[in-house]
Amino acid sequence: MQSYFKYGDLESNPKYSCVNVTLTFEELSARHVKRPFIGLLFITVGVLFEIAYILSLSVIWYSDLLKMSCFKLMFALGVLDCLTIILCNFYTGYLYVIGFEYCMYPYTSYFVGVLLADYGTFIFHPFIPGKEELQYTSIFQTTTNTFVSIAISLCYIAIYSSYMAKVRLGTSQSQNRFQRKILIQTTLVCLPTLSTASLWASFAFVSPSAFLMHLAHLSWQLMHGMPAIVYLFVNKTIQKRAFRRIAIWLNLSASRGGPYADKIQPMPCQMGITDLSTGQQKTN
Predict the structure, then answer these.
(1) Is residue 33 within 8 Å of 99, Cβ to Cβ?
(2) pTM of the predicted protein model
(3) What are the transmembrane regions (predicted)?
(4) E strands of the chain, at which residues?
(5) Are the C-beta atoms of 195 and 219 separated by less than 8 Å?
(6) Closest C-alpha to 15, from 125, 141, 142, 115
(7) Cβ(16)–Cβ(106) under 8 Å?
(8) Which residues lie across from 123 on neighbouring strands?
(9) How many structural domains are present in the chain?
């Protein structure tokens, strides 16, 4: 980004300009392997992640959960994850399908990132024809990934040590069960972040294989999609409210003569509502 402001545009940038590239869009695409199956798989998984997030975030937004700081943080991170899934699943899937390289969409690639289908993930080197020998590095990303991988590892050690210390002190069984559930959820949410940061940090010191680069990209997708899966299928607070919301939506479809009209029964909470002022039950 610094070089963009330095030169004013991409055409004047000696490392990122495609002015001298005479190949057409189709010719550039023909230079690379097309992976439509993987691309469509990425897009499909992205759709599932987004659906899970929409359900989870709607539960947080339309309930009293948003009053708690932890759920406010979960909601904010969820919105950011939804936006990132557009990049790491939908956009990446499209690039896999067409067999992409930098000069096909130079401005988009410069600001979003360079992905080559041959390598299976985003890389620093754009491999512009005629500039393959130039060096492209980012000390900032390497430093950040190294710091994140070390910090998460230390946090895990501290959390697990604290948990085991409380177990040895003989806390109640119900409290131990609750703490174990929290530990499992945090592990599932943060493990993809740890693996992604660790893999990308290692790429600065060793030459990665194609398998490791594909694995790093998959880990990046899970880093942003796994929280939605955990919220919806592991976190009982969100899970129960989400499934109740789905049942309400289906029941609304039934009341309007939708396809579920003969299959959906009213939920107990919809059959009667207690008036708190009189203690009498009202029927909807």
Answers:
(1) yes
(2) 0.76
(3) 37-62, 74-97, 109-128, 140-161, 182-205, 211-234
(4) 114-116, 121-123, 273-274, 281-282
(5) yes
(6) 125
(7) yes
(8) 114
(9) 1
* Distance, CA of 101 to CA of 33 (rounded, Å): 10
Domain-embedded: residue 227? no
Residue 269 counted as domain residue = no
Structure tokens at 211: 């398998």
Q: Which residues pair with 114 in a beta bridge?
A: 123
pLDDT per residue as tens digits for the range 114-161: 777 677 777 777 778 777 777 777 777 778 888 888 888 888 788 778
195 lies in some domain: no
Count of other CB atoms within 10 angstroms of residue 39: 22
Q: What share of the chain is helix, strand, coil (3-state, %, to 5)?
A: 65, 5, 30
Tokens of 106: 């130079």
Determine phi and psi for 121, rounding to 5 degrees: -165, 180
Q: List pLDDT tens digits, range 270-281.
A: 334 344 344 444
CA distance 42 to 86: 10
In a domain, 93, yes or no: yes
3-class secondary structure, 175? helix
CA atoms within 13 A on the CB side of 15: 15
Burial (CB < 10 A; 0-12, 13-18, 19+), residue 258, is middle
The residue whose two tokens read 């492209």 is 136
